[in-house]
């Protein structure tokens, strides 16, 4: 049986608020890249908490990566878990990449501190792909600028990290330098986020029922 955990918008808001001071202190991002579609809402909420007096809002770019596949509807998902359940796939599909019409050129990311935002670190496959591809693109741009150009520093923020064996890997220096932050570490459960709900009242009721026992 698949165990589901329902997360509300209010909980997401508070997780972002809680994480913001550490992100400001340790990462000091100049740009956020949200992985769609789960990273969009956390990135937007974070931007409000990361804004400093007298400074501009941190720009948000979006990339689209797909890894999950739906189970066939005839397969039961267990008691009190209506609807189809998605499972991690095996191949990352790039559906959207950086918008160079607003960035100008890839060279504009060279030497920047960039925060990658997603909702959940499940198998880590999507995060591994995002970091590798972004680092590769930016490194090519840095080489065009010459050896003196500073390196771009990537960090990661997720709402939830699932405590499980990961298929994907992140750069060792990122982990050693604590450039990875999960607001919460949870068990290997299926997390239902509010932006996935077709009936938000039902979703919130499920979350409330779980909290009360």
What this model shows, in words?
With 213 residues, the protein is α/β, with parallel strands linked by helices. It contains 6 helices and 8 strands. It has helices spanning 9-27, 40-50, 100-103, 125-145, 172-176, 200-211, and strands at 4-6, 31-36, 60-70, 86-96, 113-121, 153-162, 180-186, 190-192. The radius of gyration is 18 Å and the shape is globular. The two termini are 19 Å apart.
Alpha-carbon distance between the two ends: 19 Å
Shape: globular
Radius of gyration: 18 Å
What series of H and E elements makes up the topology? Answer: EHEHEEHEHEHEEH
Task: Please identify the structural class as seen in this structure.
Answer: alpha/beta
Number of strands: 8
Record the strand order, biggest sheet. Answer: 4-3-2-5-6-7
Attribute tags:
28% strand; six-stranded mixed sheet; 213 residues; alpha/beta; two-stranded parallel sheet
Provide a short characterization of the protein structure.
With 213 residues, the chain is α/β, with parallel strands linked by helices. It has helices at residues 9-27, 40-50, 100-103, 125-145, 172-176, 200-211; strands at 4-6, 31-36, 60-70, 86-96, 113-121, 153-162, 180-186, 190-192.
Topology:
Elements: E1 4-6, H1 9-27, E2 31-36, H2 40-50, E3 60-70, E4 86-96, H3 100-103, E5 113-121, H4 125-145, E6 153-162, H5 172-176, E7 180-186, E8 190-192, H6 200-211
Parallel strand pairs: 1-8, 2-3, 2-5, 5-6, 6-7
Antiparallel strand pairs: 3-4
Helix pairs in contact: 1-2
């Amino acid at each position: 049986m698949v165990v589901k955990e329902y997360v509300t918008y209010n909980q997401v808001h508070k997780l972002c608020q809680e994480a913001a001071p550490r992100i400001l202190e340790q990462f000091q991002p100049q740009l956020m890249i949200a992985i769609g579609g789960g990273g969009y809402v956390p990135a937007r909420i974070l931007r409000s908490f990361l804004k400093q007096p007298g400074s501009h809002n941190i720009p948000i770019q979006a990339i689209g990566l797909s890894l999950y596949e739906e189970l066939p509807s005839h397969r039961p998902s267990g008691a009190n878990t209506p609807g189809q359940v998605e499972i991690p796939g095996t191949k990352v599909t790039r559906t959207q990449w950086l918008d160079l019409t607003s960035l100008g050129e890839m060279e504009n990311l060279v030497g920047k501190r960039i925060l990658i935002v997603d909702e959940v670190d499940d198998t880590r496959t999507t995060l591994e792909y995002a970091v590798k591809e972004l680092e590769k693109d930016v490194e090519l741009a840095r080489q065009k600028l010459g050896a003196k150009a500073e390196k771009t520093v990537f960090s990661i923020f997720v709402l939830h990290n699932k405590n499980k064996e990961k298929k994907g890997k992140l750069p060792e220096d990122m982990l050693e330098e604590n450039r990875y932050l999960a607001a919460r570490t949870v068990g290997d459960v299926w997390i239902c986020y509010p932006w996935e709900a077709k009936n938000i009242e039902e979703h919130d009721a499920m979350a409330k029922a779980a909290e009360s026992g």
